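ARCHIVE CARD
CATEGORY: sequence design from structure
SOURCE FIELD: tokenized fold
FIELD CONTENT:
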């Protein structure tokens, strides 16, 4: 009799345990399966979003802008109740724009922190290095890096939150050639994936307009003295110096070029349309610089007005393009998280690929199979120390 009772109790325990076990989404490895199962438990535990970015060094401002844009969107969502009844936690790591450090951090957030999605990173070189890690663990990876190779790696888990580099440089060169009548361009680009990429897109845009650069000079991302490169550039007597580097380096180049006697036009893409470029170059030297961007902090629409007000209230500063595109990208991520059922990283990525017609700060988002989300930029100009829309010829 005792054996019969014991047998019934054991069977009942097994049945109850089976009923309590949640169904896990398929995953390519034991590590990613563990991460997906943890994310799908209805435990009320916070959902983790990782940020891997340059929080120190020459590119630290990029990490700061990324953190602010992501955190603002997350804070707003948490105040509204979170995702499927769970709050969101942001974990931040500094990769110092070093791809080796970035890969190590990518492994950490995927396996130890078990993030459900990640921003990685603020720099194209590191973003490219991290792609295999997040593809392996099926974790959606957002970046605002502009190098075209980022979405050409074949990963279903990479998403760019801003236009790719050619959108910036094509718009810029077409304007300078067709509207301003410029014909003599010199290029100075750093050797990072961002700088090399933007320099290449500038070359391609010039070629499409029947032109070629008078010279193209290169430098390391942490260089501070550009006298040698600028001396060679000035010998070619360009009308325009095209900048393809970080905010800080571009500002230093502009300052040193003026000191060496250059009186022509400075122009560039995403990094040039920032307060950091103006601060580094100095307002007088930056005055008149032309840049391209998909968003400027104006009152063109209600979405922008609300974002600017919220950003100022949170950080006591006016937002710029990088903060805006990370805010946009996080809105896409939160939308996909709401729809994912069950709430796993793999399902979030699948929902991201379904997004079409979403209105954001930079325009209308339509996510492609490759992970591109938006195209199109406008020409801006530094005027009276501020970033403004270029309204003149």
């Amino acid at each position: 009799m005792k054996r019969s009772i014991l047998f019934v109790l054991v069977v009942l325990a097994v049945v109850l345990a089976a009923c309590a076990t949640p169904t896990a989404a398929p995953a390519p490895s034991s590590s990613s399966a563990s991460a997906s199962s943890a994310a799908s438990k209805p435990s009320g535990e916070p959902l983790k979003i990782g940020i891997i970015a340059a929080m120190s060094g020459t590119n630290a401002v990029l990490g700061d802008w990324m953190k602010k844009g992501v955190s603002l969107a997350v804070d707003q969502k948490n105040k509204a109740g979170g995702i499927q009844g769970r709050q969101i936690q942001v974990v931040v790591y500094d990769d110092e724009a070093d791809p080796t450090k970035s890969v190590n951090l990518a492994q950490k957030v995927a396996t130890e922190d078990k993030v459900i999605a990640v921003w990685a990173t603020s720099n194209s070189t590191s973003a490219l290095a991290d792609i295999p890690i997040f593809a392996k663990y099926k974790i959606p990876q957002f970046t605002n890096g502009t190098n075209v190779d980022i979405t050409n790696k074949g990963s279903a888990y990479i998403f760019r939150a801003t236009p790719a580099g050619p959108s910036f440089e094509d718009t810029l060169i077409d304007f300078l050639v067709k509207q301003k009548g410029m014909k003599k361009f010199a290029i100075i680009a750093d050797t990072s994936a961002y700088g090399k990429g933007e320099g290449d897109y500038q070359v391609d845009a010039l070629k499409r307009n029947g032109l070629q650069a008078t010279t193209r000079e290169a430098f390391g991302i942490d260089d501070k003295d550009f006298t040698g490169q600028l001396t060679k550039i000035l010998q070619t007597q360009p009308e325009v110096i095209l900048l393809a580097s970080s905010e800080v380096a571009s500002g230093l180049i502009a300052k040193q070029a003026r000191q060496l006697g250059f009186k022509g036009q400075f122009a560039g893409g995403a990094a040039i349309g920032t307060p950091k470029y103006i601060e580094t170059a100095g307002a007088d030297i930056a005055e008149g610089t032309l840049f391209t961007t998909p968003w400027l902090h104006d009152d063109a629409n209600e979405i922008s007005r609300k974002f600017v007000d919220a950003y100022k209230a949170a950080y006591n500063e006016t937002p710029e393009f990088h903060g805006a595109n990370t805010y946009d990208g996080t809105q896409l991520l939160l939308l996909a998280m709401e729809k994912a059922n069950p709430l796993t990283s793999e399902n979030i990525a699948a929902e991201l690929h379904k997004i079409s017609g979403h209105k954001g700060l930079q325009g209308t988002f339509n996510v492609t199979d490759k992970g591109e989300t938006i195209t199109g930029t406008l020409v801006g100009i530094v005027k009276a120390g501020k970033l403004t829309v270029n309204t003149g010829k």
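CARD ANNOTATION: The chain has two domains: 30-163+301-375, 166-293. The longest strand covers residues 47-53.
SHELF: design records, drawer C
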